[in-house]
């Protein structure tokens, strides 16, 4: 357990808990079977959390805005909070200090229909006084969120939520206008499951405009739109990630306008539409230690300098994935690849590149040209050509050597700024002479 300092929290608890709540309130909050109603006001909220016994349920005043000038008491027990459409916000008043609204040190916290606003530092990329912490929620335990909006929160890591070493489950939530260095809305270092949630206009100055994950991540349904980052406009991932039925639309980054993958990723269904990379991988950028399996996913009108639809730097397999109308300012209108690419049952049509490889550009940046295998796929009507540098189907020439050269996870991976990605070994640069 890594508990955050509670000096600020304890000071406000002592003051607010004396407000006329009545002696019976504390007993009610400790009841595991009955929900304790919290009147609209910060004093009631602070006292309710501070006095809740393990297993308690707190019910907030419907549609109330609980305005805070200091952090809430940390959660160290099993607790359920029913939001009833309420909002908890860090006050916008001048002089209010920076703080993460809520910290979960241990136990199971279940939150429903509750919104969080203006958590953290109030400015992009600024760390909180006690170090890395999520702007709205900092989680070390087991956190379940259903519904609610997370807006206008910002800090260095995890603009809205930082999942440190815990388990995070999010369903039917909206994340809009949050900002961080890594993970504009969410940074995950543990286990994360996100279902049917919306990420809009979140910003990261480095990794993952909406989501940055260095753990095990499962994302299903939902939409990522208008998010921006240096790498991974919608999502940046290492270790393992499974994305199913999610749409990435209008996200932007230098590498991986929609998605940046540096680990093992499966991407099934959904669409990547009008995502933009100023350098490579308009839809998806598969990095040097990435292994991406893409099934039944549409790549439509994405743009980049290299690889309008996809830039593959390692191993990528596409099946049943149409690629239409993507464009590259240099090469690889549909796909830029320089390692191992297999395409099955897919149509790569009407993509455009300024200098070559309108459909697919197979590069020799790492020595011999990469390996491209096409089966039951149409590569047609691309400009200026369909597949530049492609060899015929056949034995995967040099594939064994390529697999050997990509092995090399030896050092500790670090987030930009030097903070280690906890508990996971890191990818060291595996191939000299990168083309970028």
Q: How does this structure look, described?
A:
The structure is a single chain. With 436 residues, this protein is mostly beta strands. The protein has 2 domains: 192 residues; 169 residues. Helices cover 8% and strands 43% of the residues. It has 4 helices and 46 strands. The strands form 5 sheets. The protein has a 25-stranded parallel β-sheet that branches. It has a 12-stranded parallel β-sheet with strand order 5-7-10-14-18-21-25-29-33-37-41-44, with no helix packed on it. Helix 1 crosses helix 3 and helix 2 packs across helix 3.
**Averaged pLDDT, please?**
85
Please report the distance between the alpha carbons of the first and last residues: 41 Å
Give the number of helices.
4
Shape: elongated
Q: List unreliable stretches of 5+ residues.
A: 1-33, 393-410, 424-436
Rounded radius of gyration (Å): 24 Å
User: β content, as a range?
Assistant: 35-45%
Name the descriptors:
mainly beta; twelve-stranded parallel beta sheet; disordered N terminus; disordered C terminus; 2 domains; 46 strands
Layout of helices and strands, plus pairs?
Elements (H helix, E strand, L loop, with lengths): L6 H10 L6 H7 L5 E4 L3 H10 L4 E5 L4 E4 L10 E12 L11 E3 L3 E10 L19 E3 L2 E5 L2 E3 L9 E3 L3 E5 L2 E3 L2 E4 L3 E3 L2 E5 L2 E3 L2 E5 L3 E3 L2 E5 L2 E3 L9 E3 L2 E5 L2 E3 L2 E4 L3 E3 L2 E5 L2 E3 L2 E5 L3 E3 L4 E5 L2 E3 L2 E4 L3 E3 L2 E5 L3 E2 L2 E5 L3 E3 L2 E5 L2 E3 L2 E2 L6 E3 L8 E5 L2 E3 L6 E2 L10 H7 L6 E3 L5 E6 L11
Parallel strand pairs: 1-2, 2-4, 3-4, 4-6, 5-7, 6-8, 6-9, 7-10, 8-11, 9-12, 10-14, 11-15, 12-16, 13-17, 14-18, 15-19, 16-20, 18-21, 19-22, 20-23, 21-25, 22-26, 23-27, 24-28, 25-29, 26-30, 27-31, 28-32, 29-33, 30-34, 31-35, 32-36, 33-37, 34-38, 35-39, 36-40, 37-41, 38-42, 39-43, 41-44
Antiparallel strand pairs: 45-46
Helix pairs in contact: 1-3, 2-3
